Amino acid sequence: MNFIIYCLVVQDFSVIIMFEMTTKRDSKYFSKIGQKGGFARIKKFGNPGTREGRSKGGRNAMRKIREIQKSGGAVGFVVAKKLEPIRKSVLTAEFVGVLFGDGHVGRYQTSITLDSKTDREYAEYLKNVIEKQFGVTAKLSFRKNARALDLTISSIAFSKQMVRLGMVEGSKLQEGLLIPEWILDSRHYSEAFLRGLFDTDGCVYSEIKKIKGKEYRYTGMAFASASPVFLGEVATLLKKLGFLPTYTERQKSVYLRRQSSVDAYFSMVTSHNPKHSVRYKKFLMEKCESG
To answer: 104 forms bridges with which residues in the sheet?
Structure first.
C-alpha cells in the first residue's frame, strides 16, 4: 500500500502524518474536501501563514499534547536532548583522532567503522567514552555479510560540534584533512590525537632483517592514508614529539621502523585498542626469545 507522507513542524517539534494514497479519480474529490476543510480551519484558528496564526497553532498543539500526556497516551515525536558544548580535553583530542582515522561526520550522523572481529573490545571502550564524556547515545551495530561494525551517533548538534573541533563534514579525502591547531599547540592533545588515529587506522607488524647472515626481529608501526598532505602532517607531528618516522610522498603510509621509536610510542602515547597492545607485547616477547 502506498502512502503520502507529510511532516508538520510545530515550533521545535516534528510530527509525521501519513495518508493512504488515493487514485487519480478520487484525488479531485478529496481536493475539494481539503479546500473546504482548510478554509474551515482558518476561520476557526486563524491564518497559519501569519505570525499570529502560527503562535495560536503552536499553543493549541501544546495544549493537545498535554491533554494526551495526562490521559497516559503517547505523543508521536521525540524532543531532542540539548547537547552541552564539548570542551577541549585529552579524551576529546583522542576522539578527534579516531574520527580522522576511521570516522565519518555527516549532517545528521557521526559514525565510526571498525573490524567486528578484532576491534570489538575497542568499540565497547569508544562507546563508553562517547556516552560518558559527551553525553550522547552511541548505537553499536554489526553489518550483515561483512566483518565490520558501526558506532553511530545520530545527532545534528554533535556533528556540528565535531566540525567545530576540526573534523570535516562529508568526504575526508575531497574536503582534505588538517590536524587542528588546538591539538598541535598542546603536547598532551597531540599524543592523544595520535593514539586515536593509530588505534583505528594504524597497525603493528613484525619484521625480520638479515645482517651478515644473522636474523634480527624488529617491531614496526604504520599508518595509511590516501591523502599525502595529511600523511605529511602526521609525519611532522611524530617528529615534533621526538619520534623518527619514515615517510616520502611516494609512500601511502607513515612508518615507525626503529624499535626504539616503537618502544617509546607504547611507553609515552600508549594504546587503548587491545589489538595493538597485545600484538606489540607478543612481538616484543618473540624478539627476546630469538635473541
So the answer is: 111
3-state secondary structure of 47: coil
pLDDT tens, position by position, 110-161: 999 999 999 999 999 999 999 999 999 999 999 998 999 999 999 999 999 9
For 191-218, the pLDDT digits (tens) are 999 999 999 999 999 988 777 777 778 8
Residues 12, 81: contact at Cβ < 8 Å?
Answer: no
User: Domain residues of the chain, as ranges?
Assistant: 3-70, 90-290
Task: Assign 23 to helix, strand or coil.
Answer: coil
Q: In the chain, how long is the greatest CA-to-CA distance?
A: 97
Query: What is the spatial distance between Cα 187 and Cα 44, in angstroms, rounded to a whole number?
Result: 65
CATH class of 90-290: alpha beta
User: Closest by alpha carbon to 7, among 49, 77, 48, 15?
Assistant: 15
Residue 278, helix vs strand vs coil = helix
- Report the run of H or E that residue 201 belongs to, with start and end: helix 187-201
Contact 145, 185 (CB under 8 A): no
8 A C-beta contact, residue 112 and residue 102: yes
∠ CA 244-286-222, nearest 5°, is 30
